[in-house]
């Protein structure tokens, strides 16, 4: 188990805001590049003009996850000149609950001792043994935080109660590996919503498509554009006027979903989409069903669609991967929107003949 942690944890860092109001990068272990340091200063709320304190934020940049817990310093004799500080963890895995718990413990240690040395001891303990224990600061056991639990932590029901039948637009965009941008002025709302979306395509169990906290900063935008399909969260309403970044735009504050003209054709909705939408809504509105049961219901439907697609594929000479037989698809005489969706799904799953 501990070997796993050693592979997952990348670095720990500390940012402080002093009584002069300057936020500075103070310490890190083993090391953090200059590029990442400026990114993390931007992400931690201490450099924000609006002075809002965000206790916990997380996101991804170039395949590494960052988790930041920020606290206000109140009567800590160890930290006389510091008003706030942020503890940053960099890791390879998506698990907000795990790293929120661990950064909270590191915060308590720093508040008490005012020295990074004690934090480093706990970090190394988790790195090597997967556990850090202390009477007064609480204990942390990394194996209590399973990845699957993190995947299921969000609420699909909340999404459906907000978007109803339109949830099928999000489902279709995810199935076709399109680019989804989500806007809301509150980072907490963005994180809660975006982290749940990959569960709509549960068969992939792929959270690497999630970029839950992006700034309209050149490096970040370039890194995002290098990804094929993604879910990207922004708190800057300017993103609305960046059609180069999205196929589907979700204004979470107003509860509106917009499909970009460029993907209108691929995203044409028909009878199949209506069926899927009804299934999603019916399942989510059932008070006896948990979020994970709703995810399962959607997943069963997805598997049916994938089975239909698989039945229309053939393995050609020397090619391991089955490809779509377009003749077989045409002969099925599906409604146009269904045929269109299956064709684009085959493209997203790399099942088209090149």
From TrEMBL:
One of its GO terms (molecular function) is guanyl-nucleotide exchange factor activity. It is found in: Late endosome. One of its GO terms (cellular component) is late endosome. This is UDENN domain-containing protein. Belongs to the DENND10 family. It comes from the Eukaryota. It comes from Falco tinnunculus. PROSITE patterns: DENN. InterPro entries: FAM45 (IPR042431), Tripartite_DENN (IPR037516). PANTHER family: DENN DOMAIN-CONTAINING PROTEIN 10-RELATED, PROTEIN FAM45A-RELATED. Residues 1-354 form the UDENN domain. Pfam families: SPA. Its main location: other. Keywords: Endosome, Guanine-nucleotide releasing factor. GO terms for biological process: protein transport; regulation of early endosome to late endosome transport.
């Amino acid at each position: 188990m501990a070997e796993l942690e050693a592979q997952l944890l990348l670095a720990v860092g500390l940012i402080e805001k002093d009584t002069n109001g300057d936020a500075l990068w103070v310490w890190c272990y083993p090391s953090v590049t200059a590029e990442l340091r400026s990114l993390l200063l931007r992400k931690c709320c201490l450099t924000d003009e609006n002075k809002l304190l965000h206790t916990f934020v997380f996101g991804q940049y170039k395949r590494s996850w960052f988790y930041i817990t920020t606290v206000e310093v109140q009567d800590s004799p160890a930290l006389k000149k510091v008003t706030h500080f942020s503890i940053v963890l960099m890791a390879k895995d998506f698990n907000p609950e795990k790293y929120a718990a661990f950064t909270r413990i590191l915060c308590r240690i720093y508040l008490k001792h005012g020295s990074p040395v004690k934090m480093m001891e706990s970090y190394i303990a988790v790195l090597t043994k997967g556990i850090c224990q202390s009477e007064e600061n609480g204990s942390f056991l990394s194996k209590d935080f399973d990845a699957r639990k993190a995947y299921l932590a969000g609420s699909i029901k909340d999404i459906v109660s907000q978007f109803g039948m339109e949830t099928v637009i999000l489902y279709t965009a995810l199935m076709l590996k399109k680019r989804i941008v989500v806007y809301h002025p509150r980072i907490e709302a963005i994180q809660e919503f975006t982290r749940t979306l990959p569960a709509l395509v549960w068969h992939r169990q792929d959270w690497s498509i999630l970029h839950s906290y992006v700034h309209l900063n050149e490096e970040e935008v370039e890194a995002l554009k290098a990804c094929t399909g993604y879910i990207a969260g922004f708190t800057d309403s300017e993103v609305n006027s960046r059609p180069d970044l999205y196929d589907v735009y979700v204004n979470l504050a107003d509860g509106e979903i917009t499909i970009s003209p460029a993907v209108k054709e691929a995203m044409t909705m028909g009878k199949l989409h209506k069926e899927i939408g009804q299934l999603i809504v019916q399942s989510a509105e059932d008070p006896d069903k948990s979020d994970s049961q709703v995810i399962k219901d959607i997943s069963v439907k997805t598997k049916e669609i994938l089975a239909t697609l698989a039945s229309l594929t053939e393995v050609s000479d020397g090619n391991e991967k089955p490809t779509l037989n377009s003749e077989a698809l045409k002969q099925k005489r599906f409604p146009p929107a269904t045929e269109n969706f299956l064709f684009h799904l085959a493209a997203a799953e790399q099942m088209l003949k090149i």
